[in-house]
Amino acid sequence: xxxxxxxxxxxxxxxxxxxxxxxxxxxxxxxxxxxxxxxxxxxxxxxxxxxxxxxxxxxxxxxxxxxxxxxxxxxxxxxxxxxxxxxxxxxxxxxxxxxxx
Length: 101
What we know:
The chain is mainly α. Helix content is 68%, strand content 0%. The protein folds into two domains: 1-47; 50-97. It contains four helices and no strands. Helix 3 (50-71) runs antiparallel to helix 4 (77-97).
């Protein structure tokens, strides 16, 4: 990500300490935490970084594998139910990852 702007923000010492604590708990920098907050307020998608990005790749692979299974002809009712449960779990995992669960 390229940063092409700078903002100066004046906040209380207590607020800064709370933000630093939250950023540390999430394993991100304070700048990243603030950028996420700004994007959230503006209704923009939050960029995934690090482990989150890896999790998205994993979820996409799971979805692709499930979709490939659906391509096979001659599935039994039990197999189709298992595939549906798999899709439901991927959906739940995605919402959890994106903080919408």
